[in-house]
Amino acid sequence: xxxxxxxxxxxxxxxxxxxxxxxxxxxxxxxxxxxxxxxxxxxxxxxxxxxxxxxxxxxxxxxxxxxxxxxxxxxxxxxxxxxxxxxxxxxxxxxxxxxxxxxxxxxxxxxxxxxxxxxxxxxxxxxxxxxxxxxxxxxxxxxxxxxxxxxxxxxxxxxxxxxxxxxxxxxxxxxxxxxxxxxxxxxxxxxxxxxxxxxxxxxxxxxxxxxxxxxxxxxxxxxxxxxxxxxxxxxxxxxxxxxxxxxxxxxxxxxxxxxxxxxxxxxxxxxxxxxxxxxxxxxxx
Length: 285
Prior knowledge:
Blueprint: H1 2-13, H2 46-76, H3 85-108, H4 139-166, H5 171-174, H6 177-193, H7 199-206, H8 210-225, H9 227-242, H10 245-251, E1 256-262, E2 274-280
Antiparallel strand pairs: 1-2
């Protein structure tokens, strides 16, 4: 739900409907004006869209972490998570992002100066100071990047713990290709649910090499815009197919018998016509 609402608000509300042109102050005395940072009162729904985007994106990553904690508890306790975990998850998943958004709005936003919280070009968190340099005092850093970094680090720790459990040395398991395939698929599905593809976004922030930045940009866009499709395939379609083996059997190619004849071009004492059939099995991967 949180991911769906984030994408909807991003598609329909990321562009600021109100654009203020930057008008330079003309001075006859050729002196530097008191401020080159133009302030306009808030107009339109851009601030509301910014808050909703921040909230639902943080909620998405919060729920990813809660899913990882759920997996961690499943490995720790055979009986499953404790009975209080679902209620605590509901509270944390929806309330914690709202607290972060409330702090961001309350400490940086005012009707007379909305650019302390959001940007002017599009409806997203402010990140640059008046010198157009990234500022750690802006809500983009401490209201989004910092909480996201903590979430991704915790998710990475959960994934490494998962690796340690399923990849323990076992000669009987290591000899099986199907078991290895299941391990890889399980690890990949958990990484998708934990949102670890966003690590490429942090690499994009720190890298300055042009070609690497272009490649990482493409990878970042592909992985994150298809995260919902990946979740649909891994957690909806695949369990559905695995629970219906008859449907999978119907997808397999039937065995086909080929007719083969042998002919001789010259006469021999034991000349005879030979016919045989060969059955070739095909299996759908």
